[in-house]
């Protein structure tokens, strides 16, 4: 074999190996077999055997280098396609809700599946937000005041709701405090609702907010007609509970208003009476009116004490407590006993009644006097009634001067 033929054979082999990138040992074996096929008689064969080993080593190095280069290029070319392709285990992420400046009526910007910072409400400038819900007149400085803020965790939200006491700017007592509930949104806080307030308590001042899981408790006070603007005198408490609505949204629902006005003392009440009777004349009674003479509001609730006594002030019969009667009492026996709040100068009343049958009976006593005590006091006084009294009964205190709701 001539030198030219051998070089051509090596070149062809290198090109083939570059394309297939086999193991270097396979390349060396193939070239070795090709050289051994050369007839020893040829003069050139002896000289070729002297430098064939370096050629084999160089060829092996070239083949390995070419194979590595091609592998790197293939990897770079395939990576974008692999990265762009979907993963078998991938799940689509939820889309962000659209931002809105109005109240959120959807399942909630902070609803399930959304990430809400736990302390998001601490940095919110509540006074700087628009508050058309308050109806504040223009020209107030500041336009809105914020007296309290806190957060409340609710089960259907992925983060806490913000709660704040806000009011129109101006002198204390001129504008009512309102409890506002806010929901987190990426575009800014959204007003969820203003908690409702009890009527007939004038301008409300919120003294304290307390929150728990799914609840807000408001301790507040209203103003009676005679109370100064900065001195609310009708305290109360009210709890609001989170309720999930159809569709996944939610709101706080108001519980009963619990009056926290201080009970009336005996010294704060003036007592007056008025005689009552049924059309037949057999039913007799007294309308007892309690007027608040103190400078602050107080409350009355329950049944007055009433008893028929003899001349020695010994009790002959205690009045039976009944919710309803012929001359007064509640509208229904199933009605709850009310808490009556008495601003200064206002009155509440109760009815004590009995019957005067033509004969005597086991429930009849001959009384020298009828004594009565306002509810929850010890200020017992004489009502100036004597004679035969049968079936003595007393009804709860109600608002006003009629003894009836």
Describe the protein in words:
The chain is an alpha+beta fold. It has three domains: about 5-85, no CATH class; about 120-260, no CATH class; about 265-400, Immunoglobulin-like (Sandwich). About 20% of the residues lie in helices and about 35% in strands. About 25% of the residues are buried.
Tags for this model:
21 strands, 33% strand, alpha+beta, seven-stranded mixed sheet, 3 helices, 405 residues, 3 domains
Describe the structure concisely for a colleague:
This protein folds into three domains: 3-84, no CATH class; 120-259, no CATH class; 266-399, Immunoglobulin-like, CATH 2.60.40.
- Beginning-to-end CA distance, first to last residue: 130 Å
List segments where confidence is low: pLDDT < 50 over at least 5 consecutive residues. Answer: 77-108
The structural class is alpha+beta
Shape: elongated
């Amino acid at each position: 074999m001539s030198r030219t033929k051998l070089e051509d054979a090596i070149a062809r082999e290198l090109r083939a190996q570059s394309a297939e990138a086999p193991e270097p040992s396979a390349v060396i074996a193939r070239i070795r077999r090709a050289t051994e096929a050369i007839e020893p008689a040829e003069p050139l064969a002896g000289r070729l055997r002297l430098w064939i080993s370096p050629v084999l080593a160089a060829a092996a190095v070239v083949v390995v280098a070419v194979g590595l280069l091609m592998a790197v290029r293939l990897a770079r070319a395939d990576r974008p396609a692999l990265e762009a392709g979907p993963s078998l285990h991938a799940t689509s992420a939820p889309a962000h809700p659209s931002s809105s400046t109005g109240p959120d009526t959807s399942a909630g910007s902070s609803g399930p599946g959304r990430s809400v910072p736990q302390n998001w409400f601490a940095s919110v400038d509540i006074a700087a937000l628009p508050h058309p819900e308050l109806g504040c007149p223009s020209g107030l400085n500041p336009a809105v005041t914020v007296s309290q803020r806190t957060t409340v965790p609710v089960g259907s939200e992925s983060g806490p709701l913000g709660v704040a006491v806000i009011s129109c700017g101006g002198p204390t007592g001129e504008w009512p405090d309102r409890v506002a509930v806010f929901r987190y949104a990426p575009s800014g806080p959204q007003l969820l609702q203003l908690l409702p307030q009890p009527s007939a308590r004038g301008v409300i001042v919120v003294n304290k907010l307390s929150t728990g899981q799914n609840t807000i408790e408001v301790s507040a006070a209203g103003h009676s007609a005679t109370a100064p603007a900065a001195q609310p005198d009708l305290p109360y408490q009210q709890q609001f509970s989170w309720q999930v609505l159809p569709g996944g949204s939610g709101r706080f629902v108001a519980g009963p208003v619990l009056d926290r006005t201080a009970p009336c003392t005996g010294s704060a009440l003036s007592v007056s009476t008025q005689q009552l009777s049924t059309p037949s004349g057999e039913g007799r009674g007294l309308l007892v009116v309690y007027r608040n003479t103190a400078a602050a509001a107080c409350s009355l609730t329950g049944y007055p004490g009433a008893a028929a006594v003899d001349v020695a002030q010994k009790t002959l019969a205690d009045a039976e407590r009944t919710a309803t009667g012929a001359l007064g009492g509640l509208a229904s026996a199933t009605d709850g006993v009310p808490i009556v709040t008495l601003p200064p100068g206002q009155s509440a009343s109760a009815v004590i009644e009995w019957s005067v049958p033509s004969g005597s009976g086991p429930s009849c006593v001959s009384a020298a006097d009828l004594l009565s005590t306002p509810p929850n006091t010890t200020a017992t006084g004489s009502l100036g009634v004597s004679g035969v009294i049968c079936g003595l009964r007393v009804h709860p205190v109600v608002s006003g001067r009629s003894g009836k709701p």
